Amino acid sequence: xxxxxxxxxxxxxxxxxxxxxxxxxxxxxxxxxxxxxxxxxxxxxxxxxxxxxxxxxxxxxxxxxxxxxxxxxxxxxxxxxxxxxxxxxxxxxxxxxxxxxxxxxxxxxxxxxxxxxxxxxxxxxxxxxxxxxxxxxxxxxxxxxxxxxxxxxxxxxxxxxxxxxxxxxxxxxxxxxxxxxxxxxxxxxxxxxxxxxxxxxxxxxxxxxxxxxxxxxxxxxxxxxxxxxxxxxxxxxxxxxxxxxxxxxxxxxxxxxxxxxxxxxxxxxxxxxxxxxxxxxxxxxxxxxxx
Length: 291
What we know:
There is one protein chain. By secondary structure, the protein is mainly α. It folds into two domains: about 10-150, no CATH class; about 190-290, no CATH class. It has eleven helices and two strands. The protein has helices at about 15-50, 60-65, 70-85, 90-95, 100-105, 115-125, 130-175, 190-205, 220-240, 250-255, 255-280; strands at about 215, 290. A two-stranded antiparallel sheet has the order 1-2. Helix 1 packs across helix 3 and helix 6 runs antiparallel to helix 7 (about 130-175). The longest helix has about 45 residues, at about 130-175.
């Protein structure tokens, strides 16, 4: 046997010539295959003989190196011989007819180190695989299948663990007694002074909500016109009644603080009202008046 080379196409030949060359090929395969087996046997016997004598330690490698053999080639031949020697005659003949590169591969000590390798090797011994390329493709396929199986198993185990954790949590929740929490909220008591002041403003100026937008919209033109006229008249009367206060600078300066504060509060309320009316006038929608 020789290493794999490009496959020859016998279909290009006539029938008799193709048959003739096939016969020659088989004969050469038998010769070469047997030669590799014989070489392996000779090396195996020499190695065993020298290893039985401590004084000849290291001599075996020196010996086969002297005859032109390399260490890797020697051990491949010995491993191949061991493989063939341990098979029955049918498998032995099968192996000797296979490419040497393939028999080297399945004769490695690690050829059965994994389940995919063991299965691929067995396929060769069964006659299902006949080239190194086919062997490697089959091995890659089985290794991929094994990896997928391991991943699926890992995911299943992870799912089981997560389910167990969730089950434990649910059981703890069901077993735990409900916890009752009481929350105390402090409710502030309104300041009586502020309440009294608010009531006084209501008496003077009405409900403050009229300045905060809580009003009723009307669209009756006569009602709006009447309200404007009434408003103008009231403002005129107010100005006539209190216009002189603008000249009371000295009187205001001499006034006690409580009196000034009352004026300020009243003025603030008036300004709030005026600003609210001004905003209502600037709106594009219906006029707003207090309802």
